[in-house]
């Protein structure tokens, strides 16, 4: 069980891990906390955006849209590997997911199949949206994969978590496919190597 780190500590940790970070507006206070608690936090969730164009992607993730207000994550990782911080606190990114998956993340064990959507994920996960069309063909540049690895490792390092605390949206909520184009197993191996 872990309390979310402060916004300033979050920024410091990301930069200490070597991530290139851009602060977008009043990101430290942009959240959905009025809809429910944020924390305890148990892991990091990775998504793809199904968008093209960095400026558009960052703005969409910051503002959201009519049926799903922003922020839609804590950070947007664009194709060039830049991490754009758009919110901090509760964010509309994880949605409801499987309580068995959450228990496995907390225990840092192998993930079971996600076959339920009965648990509030927005409360328990840091979230990163990654600019990608999500069609399995849009490439994932090395700079972008490196940034995903760095931000996840930075958060795991702070909380004393292993790579097993990093999951994809597809491992949390039935019917989700993101991130598509690389495997979470390969990303967890990268994070594991970085944390050594």
TrEMBL record:
Residues covered by the N-acetylmuramoyl-L-alanine amidase domain: 27-180
Parts forming coiled coils: none
Any GO BP: peptidoglycan catabolic process
Entry superkingdom: Bacteria
Matching InterPro entries: Amidase/PGRP_sf (IPR036505), Amidase_domain (IPR002502)
GO molecular function, one term: N-acetylmuramoyl-L-alanine amidase activity
Protein name: Peptidoglycan-binding protein
Source organism of the structure: Streptomyces dysideae
């Amino acid at each position: 069980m872990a309390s979310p780190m402060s916004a300033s500590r979050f920024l410091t940790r990301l930069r200490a891990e070597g991530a290139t970070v851009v602060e977008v507006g009043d990101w430290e206070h942009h959240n959905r906390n009025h809809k429910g608690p944020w924390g305890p936090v148990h892991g990091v969730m990775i998504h793809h955006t199904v968008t093209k164009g960095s400026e558009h992607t960052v703005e969409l993730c910051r503002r959201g849209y009519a049926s799903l207000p922003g922020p839609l994550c804590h950070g947007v990782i664009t194709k060039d590997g830049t991490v754009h911080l758009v919110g901090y606190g509760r964010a509309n990114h994880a949605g409801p997911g499987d309580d068995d998956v959450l228990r496995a993340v907390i225990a840092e064990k192998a993930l079971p199949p996600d076959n339920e959507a009965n648990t509030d994920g927005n409360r328990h996960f840091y979230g990163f949206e990654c600019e990608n069309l999500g069609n399995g063909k849009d490439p994932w540049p090395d700079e972008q994969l490196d940034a995903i690895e760095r931000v996840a490792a930075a958060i795991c390092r702070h909380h004393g978590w292993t790579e097993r605390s990093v999951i994809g949206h597809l491992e949390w909520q039935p019917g989700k496919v993101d991130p598509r184009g690389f495997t979470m197993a390969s990303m967890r191996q990268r994070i594991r190597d970085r944390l050594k």
